[in-house]
Amino acid sequence: MRLLIIGFGNLGRGLVESLAEKKSFLYRRFGLKPRVVGVVDDSGAATNNKGLDWRLLVKKAYQKAKVSAFPNYKRISAVEAIESVECEIVFELTPTNIQTGEPGLTHIKKAMKAGRHVITSNKGPLVVAFRELEHLAKKQGVEFRYSASVGGAIPVIELARKLLAGNEVLEIQGVLNGTTNYILSRMAEEGAPFDQVLREAQELGIAEKDPTLDIEGIDTAAKLVILSNAILGRDVKFKDVRRTGIARITPQAIKLAKETGNTIKLVGVATRQTVEVSPKLVPLGHPLAVGGTLNAVNFKLDLAREISITGFGAGPRETSSSLLGDLIDVCRTIA
Amino acid sequence: MRLLIIGFGNLGRGLVESLAEKKSFLYRRFGLKPRVVGVVDDSGAATNNKGLDWRLLVKKAYQKAKVSAFPNYKRISAVEAIESVECEIVFELTPTNIQTGEPGLTHIKKAMKAGRHVITSNKGPLVVAFRELEHLAKKQGVEFRYSASVGGAIPVIELARKLLAGNEVLEIQGVLNGTTNYILSRMAEEGAPFDQVLREAQELGIAEKDPTLDIEGIDTAAKLVILSNAILGRDVKFKDVRRTGIARITPQAIKLAKETGNTIKLVGVATRQTVEVSPKLVPLGHPLAVGGTLNAVNFKLDLAREISITGFGAGPRETSSSLLGDLIDVCRTIA
Questions:
Q1: Domain B2-153+316-334 is in which class?
Q2: Which fold has domain B158-311?
Q3: Considering B223, B255, B258, B265, which one is annotated as catalytic?
Q4: Does the pTM exceed 0.90?
Q5: Contact B12/B57 with Cβ under 8 angstroms?
Q6: What is the pLDDT of residue A94?
Q7: What pLDDT sits at residue A286?
Q8: What's the per-residue H, E or C state across A247-259?
Q9: Is B307 in the A-facing interface, judged by CB distances under 8 Å?
């Protein structure tokens, strides 16, 4: 199984490290022998049709090197690599842009048109062109997986689509952003105001310098769009999401919530009629009332009533769990 | 797809009702046309090789009728039905006996030897003869699924084995018994003593008249044996489980837990070395700190770190979610 990895940032490097670490596990358990025939970033492409040396890959990943630090790298673009490198599976792991979906959108389309199966963590292309990409994959007869795009390590989409297949999903509720959950959890624990906790989170690297995407619920909304389309069979766009962030949550509101046995979480809710992101009261003991940077998703279902799943929604190693899960699933499906 | 249903108690009736309700959904979504060619209990068997009439099935299920109330039922045993009724899939849904595994164990073996795929909710055969049944299924070339045996509606086993396939499961922790969870949750809410809350639970039908299996952790231990064998690849027997029940938990202990931000849950823990059921302190906000009759399972994993899943661990309709999930999966696998 020949893999081409587009994007050698946190997630690309995390995938390389996990693949190297789990080589013998993947062979022993599933008979899989993945070979990374190329890694690509905006500095160029390092390729080897027999598979790049694992020690080299792990060393460069550990050093957080650009691809231009690989011996014999070529100054070619991702699109050129996708069109010229022989492989079965393309991992599209470039950063998310939910306005244009680029450059991931072009990468995914080119890969599918070249007959490659595609696994992505990139929300952008899915938010911008979900149905188009699903149709293209079907037309080209290739597999398309995107477990890592929502919930990091949590297999949210596959849980609903495969394991709960006997159910109609009536509603999806999700705490889908670790940064805002961290901030709200700390506010509840310390009674501290939003601005102070945000600064602490920024110092710890949990919140970005520009925290807009997280605290205004944009990241949550993007993930909710993907879940609505993938699980509820809808064709929702980003602009369809009603959205309220957490910047106006006061310590008083959180204290009041606590006194009544509740906590406040930034919750995305999708049904067949609505898609909405807003701060909500969640009872303590409810599966969505998870602390720290955890993510959680709660499904309302016609048979099972409610199923919730919780885990780490970010982190390169955690996300590689979903990427490897998709890889194993694609290999099973095409075997 | 011809189904033979052994056991027409709560779960058998719940399955029949869900199948009837979701007939068109199953056809539309998966192209499946299940027909119930036989239902069997200890009063006899009602069979029809073209499929029993759905209205008749639903009516008898609704009336909580014995199979002897069906027109033209035959006084034959389950084993005779398994050996004589032409079908592809046998549902084994008789009551659990974790000492002998019977009568489910014999039913499952006979069905496999007759070349039938088997789906079961019955813990007994899995606790008594897990490896033997897995081997027999493999030898006979039939599919064997038992999602409904642990966690009711929660697809615990398939989550670990399929969706988290890239991970090594390092530890399984589970709140696997709704009755004890209800009792402990009520004790925490009311500050009431164990005996009083148990009586209330018995009046509500949440606890059995003889609550031994639940409150002494026997049911949890049986489920933990299944999870250890199915997910950790072990060959654990019931006697290997160290077990402490909840009867000695005092309101004082629960109050003290609460004051330190914790709650007390009956937790089953399995690793490659240990299998143990005992009351444990769980921090509020932890995914295992679920209230009411909910069940929850937490996996410790090498890549994803922790994934938890929560849902209703019992109830005929909830459990039919797992039975239908298994049915869809078996049909996909053999297609």
A1: alpha beta
A2: Dihydrodipicolinate Reductase; domain 2 (3.30.360)
A3: B223
A4: yes
A5: no
A6: 97
A7: 87
A8: CCCCHHHHHHHHH
A9: yes
